[in-house]
């Protein structure tokens, strides 16, 4: 098994921003008589600037594991991850500090991103206005509803205008209006050259995605073309049926 | 403001809103220390301590001895729980700070700074409440030993938080100072020198200093304070390593 490597460089042109090569990950335990669970057994993928990429797969297939490795919060057992540019990460469970206010949360993470106080304030107002949480800026995170908490979770991932945005089911708890705003936002970001990667369960969303990766049996399959082929095949079949 | 300062100042605000911790800080010193002085029968008891470098027994009032023991128990208990809460929360969320660009040492400095600040307050309150009823012979030696045992327990709380969940961790951090300081190191219970395994507990060296500098007129335990500090440094290195592992990519 080769030693895992991870590298991060500056984004320059519209090219591959994230590349995963032969990623392997097994969840194990040092305790005797416990089971090791291999999750990824040689996953490869590429994420390009300006793409909206969906990661799909069954429950327990390893989608979140793959995303956590791509983000860098989980270390792969072997294989390499290359990242170019800055990353924004919106985890499935909002990883926020319950007793901080929304404003303090922006300050804490904005400082990490290296933003100035003015830039943090501007980002906070921009997202509060777009996602409609202006009235909650002085509320503590644990006083917010699940949907509003998720809006903050998403905004924190976006506030520094990252080159790559990694979203793990980002719309959980959103009302329909916010859901549509989210997709407008994703389209805007992709148009500006941001690579948007999201774990998705919803079939109807797949038409909005430029590329779809399916995690299955420990591998990652690019099923975008297969979907097109299936569509073409289905169209052909219908045409023949019509004749 | 740099990252460490931001994370530290926001961390302090976060802990100040931890009502369990604030309630413990208000209720425990009065209920443990003041009540210990109030309800303990005022009789002379034999107390094991060091005199001219030798283990000896001196006669002291039971309320004073009880006060000397209950003060570090209170402080260690609150600091231990603070360390536990810090680690539990950090385990869940501090990894996201790393993705946002915080260096490991910046988060570690901020979190351990918050724990140090809490421990200072806890020690100050505990000693302050004790001083209402009892004045140690050498106050600053006593305070130094109090700080060492409190910080040590705060760090042990962090270690416990890395391994156990919140409920199990709370039980452990409630029981450990009671057993260590309140039983194994209490000179009223253990009249002779404690067994070797009792000396492995974090309270052994600091409590020797507190009994000596609180109840006798000479300082015979300067070396014990050095050992206590060594123990603290060892636990600190462990806690930093465990914290690093718990919050970084695994």
From TrEMBL, chain A:
It comes from the Archaea. SUPFAM superfamilies: P-loop containing nucleoside triphosphate hydrolases (SSF52540). SMART domains: AAA (SM00382). InterPro entries: AAA+_ATPase (IPR003593), ABC_transporter-like_ATP-bd (IPR003439), ABC_transporter-like_CS (IPR017871), P-loop_NTPase (IPR027417). Keywords: ATP-binding, Nucleotide-binding. CDD domains: ABC_DR_subfamily_A. GO terms for molecular function: ATP binding; ATP hydrolysis activity. The keyword Oxidoreductase does not apply. Residues 18-242 form the ABC transporter domain. It comes from Halorubrum halodurans. This is ABC transporter ATP-binding protein.
From TrEMBL, chain B:
The chain crosses the membrane at residues 20-39, 68-87, 108-132, 138-164, 171-190, 225-244. Keywords: Membrane, Transmembrane, Transmembrane helix. The keyword Membrane applies. One of its GO terms (cellular component) is membrane. The keyword Membrane applies. GO terms for molecular function: ABC-type transporter activity. It comes from the Archaea. This is ABC transporter permease. It comes from Halorubrum trapanicum.
